[in-house]
Input
Amino acid sequence: MKKPLLFTVVILVILLILPAIAFTGWFLKEKKQMNIVILDKTVHSLERNHHRALNWVLANGRFVKDSNRKYLLRKDYYGFFPIKPLRSKQFRRNDFRLSDLPEIVANNDMLYYADTYGVFFNDWYEGINRSRRSRMLYGGLNNNDYLLLAEMRKLNKLVILEHNSFGYPTDAYERYKVEEQFGMQSTGWSGEYYPSLDSLDVPEWLPVLYLKKNRTPWSFTNAGIVLLKGENDVIILEEETHLVSAIPYVTTSSDIALKYGVPEKVAFRGPFDIIDAKENSVLSSFSLETTPEGLELLDRHFLSNVFPAVSGNLGEGNYIYMAGDFATGKMAPWTACFGQPGFLSSLLYSDEVNDPRRFFWLYYKPLLSGLLNDYYLTLE
Output
């Protein structure tokens, strides 16, 4: 056999054998029964991207329901459900009623509120004026959501909330009650990184709001971070003027990084909240690389360039708040069946700091897997 052909055959064999070995190792792993309440109110498509990363981690870690069945991305959650065909713009709401709560609490081990922001009229229906924010079709953390959270906490069951559980459009009273449960306080500010502030990625209503608030036209062109408070206040941090680098980073102390197998610094490109963790433990922080001018701008609004990303109490409290849109992803569910795909890492993400896939593989996956496995051991 000629050397080029032999080389090709060897490569093909490796590409076939390694995934087979990885799948076999995953398949032979013991299933871990843990009933989880998943809530996602921000579902704009059939892809369910806002809790896709969560489901991937559950499948990859062999976490199953008490029926020994895996969690289905399109069925096993509460929240907003688009109805096929998507072009019909039909949807239904799968909510838990007050009378359902005792049974849900008794039959579940933990809850994960992946996204409570919701779906807005302009986002769901096409051809609508997008120069201003539209009314909400569905969303916000409501009283039943809070009551379920509170009852789960009374029984010391693991509660994980993600960004926007405190913020708009959740009503002030529900926000206050959740803050009280977690011993945290929301500043009301949320933020998001934009690769270009002069692009179609920026919502059309944002320059309008900026003009109204600052009485100066939108003239930003570089990458930057937009900070919003409710529907009225807006701060623009632009690269080169306010930021040395526009990309926010999640930083973790060496001891926590070692415990969960996460890097001490990784870029994060999704939406985030700015909260005050009070007396809670901070596992990781967001860090904005501000210039002196940017730091001064934040200081005028009583904000810092470093604030909690993941905080909570894993001792007596068993609760975690992830102040970023961590559970959003686009990975194919079937890839979760290949165990720990370390040998494919070069195909899964690049060494480029800007690669958004790096955050999932390097941070969210190992962190959430660690949290779930630690908690599972307490249930046995």
